[in-house]
Structure formats: structure tokens, C-alpha cells
């Protein structure tokens, strides 16, 4: 069985621990996922399982409806690597029971998109002087390259541009509660992405160490 599962971010809430202390948690609808394909070293060069999660939205038209009735396709399909001692079968169902309270997990999602942003917001630049007669340098980035040598702007220089909407992984988050009956996973702290965004949840490698 894989050590990962697909899920959907539901939002944040709080729970009270044994000592009565409130903890901020993220609620995730994790699974159930179906094994769509198993890749092997002999055939594909590596070992992995492709998991399907969710349902595609219904499309109009007789052909589309007939196809969905015959073989409903999942909305999301992602691969999870398999170790030598792990096995998976096509059609196998994987739910949130792969995790238990106290486990450490790594969660991957797409961060919130914030559109075009300047250097102050995007990289926390200090900006220009706020006195001595300046009028339009308050949030300017400053110099972006030398004059004669090398006479160009280096690739990768931190400048204004598109902010967010990137693949982000948060490591070593603690599982507070795993409820297979409701396909619910409560994780301590915040996870990347918007509400209803797709999340990849794996058992943490660093947490094991």
C-alpha cells in the first residue's frame, strides 16, 4: 500500500487537546482513492502507483454521458512511489486509515495566486528613502544590473512579477486526527493552497528520522 493519498482542503478550524489548549488545524477530505495503474521496475523502470481521486463534472451530450456510465473517470490522477516492500493492486481502495494520530506528513499543494506584485510585496524589499525630496522611489526595486560590465540583468534576479500559484510542500505536519468513516484528516497548522484545492499527502521521510 502507498504511504500517500490525495485530498481536498476544506478549511481551518480549531480543536482542544487533552490539556484544554486550543490548536489550529486544517481539515482535509482525504480519499478514498482508487489505484488506477501500478508501474513496475521491469516494465516501466521504476515502481509507483497511480491514484485517482474525485469525480469529473458531468458533460452534456449523449456520447459523453454514455462514456461516463461505462467507466467514470476520476477528476485527479497522481503518482506515488512504491518502496520495495510496498504492494498495490489495480482497483484497490486507499483511504485515510493509512495515517494515524501523531504521524508526521508532508503536504504538497499549489499556493494562492496573488497576481502581479512588486519587489516590496514579493520579496520584502525595503524600498527607497522616505525623505530628502524623493517623490517616486518609495517602493522601487533599485538597481537591477551594472552599467558597462556585464551590461545586462542577470537571469533569476529578484524583481516584480507573478506572485504565488506555485507548487509548495510543507514538511513535518502533525496528524491530529484521522477519521476513515468521514474521510477526514485533521492536520496541525496551515497547508498550502486555496479552499477546495488538491493536496498530496505523504508520510514524512524526515519525520521518521
Question: Would you kindly provide a written description of the structure presented here, covering whatever features stand out?
Answer:
- The chain is mainly beta and 209 residues long.
- 11% of the residues lie in helices and 38% in strands.
- The chain contains 4 helices and 12 strands.
- It has helices at 41-44, 62-70, 119-123, 205-208; strands at 4-16, 22-30, 33-39, 48-53, 76-81, 93-94, 104-110, 115-117, 161-163, 167-179, 184-188, 198-203.
- A 6-stranded antiparallel β-barrel has the order 1-2-11-10-7-12. It has a 4-stranded antiparallel β-sheet with strand order 5-4-3-6. It has a two-stranded antiparallel ribbon with strand order 8-9.
- The longest helix is centred in the first third of the chain and has 9 residues, at 62-70.
- The protein is extended.
- The two termini are 21 Å apart.
- The model has no long low-confidence stretch (mean pLDDT 88).
The total beta strand count reads 12
Helix content: 10-25%
**Estimated structural class:** mainly beta
Largest sheet: 6 strands, antiparallel, barrel
Q: Strand arrangement, largest sheet?
A: 1-2-11-10-7-12
Described by the principal axes of the CA atoms, the overall outline is: extended
Tally of helical segments:
4
Percent of residues in beta strands? 35-45%
What is Rg? 23 Å
Mean pLDDT: 88
Low-confidence stretches: none
What's the N-to-C terminus distance? 21 Å
Listing every helix as H and every strand as E from the N terminus to the C terminus, the arrangement reads EEEHEHEEEEHEEEEH
